[in-house]
Amino acid sequence: MEPTASEWIKPIQRQSLSELAYTSLREALMEGRMKPGDELPLRPISRSFGISATPMREALLRLVTEHALEMDGRGRISVPHLTRATLIEVRKIRGFLEGNAARQAAIAASPEAVDALEQIHVDLGTAQDQGDFSRAIGLNTKFHLKLCEIAGLPVTHEVVSNLWVRCGPLLSHLYDAGLPPNWDPHPHLRIVKAIRGKDPEGAYEALNMDIEGGGAGLLAHVCD
């Protein structure tokens, strides 16, 4: 069985094959390019990456250890389904950490950094308009991680990245019902405006509005 999201798979050359495979898989999880329940059979996915089974196994098992993937009693590896409780917990943690990053960004971010953050959202809107929802989901992830970056909080960025690895596959359902509600303005633009205006609390509130409102429909795709 070949991986369902083969478009994100690229042949790997040299360096650390296991590390490169791990990074590629991790990014695919973060950006919603794999769905909950997708299986990752070792030999087919190794062939897709153009590497042997040994480094691929190492990469997969590393992600299993991090709870980004799961392995059943027969050794089959797949993308886990989130429970409602786990999703709610992740959202609360994200709200606190990313909200704090938004506050800090409003204090410390340079105008150029804010411009770069805003451009990510512009690109996201273009992807939506073109019906390229896979790219839009990836840009949404990029927006939130960029926020932690411009806040100058590397530890927060690392922790938030790990949370996105856990919840990213669920984002594959973000556009199942079509485009999200047309908020006026979109919470991303509220975040950008608050950061540009040096409004820490406004940035915090807009970030949490985005998490709560934007991901509300995802609750229909979790386990009890």
From TrEMBL:
The keyword DNA-binding belongs to this UniProt entry's keyword annotation? yes
Q: Which Gene3D superfamilies match?
A: GntR ligand-binding domain-like, Winged helix-like DNA-binding domain superfamily/Winged helix DNA-binding domain
InterPro entries the UniProt entry points to: GntR_C, TF_FadR/GntR_C, Tscrpt_reg_HTH_GntR, WH-like_DNA-bd_sf, WH_DNA-bd_sf
Q: Give the HTH gntR-type domain ranges.
A: 15-81
Which controlled-vocabulary keywords does the entry list? Answer: DNA-binding, Transcription, Transcription regulation
Q: Write down the SMART domains for this protein, in alphabetical order.
A: FCD, HTH_GNTR
The keyword DNA-binding belongs to this UniProt entry's keyword annotation:
yes
What is this protein's record name? GntR family transcriptional regulator
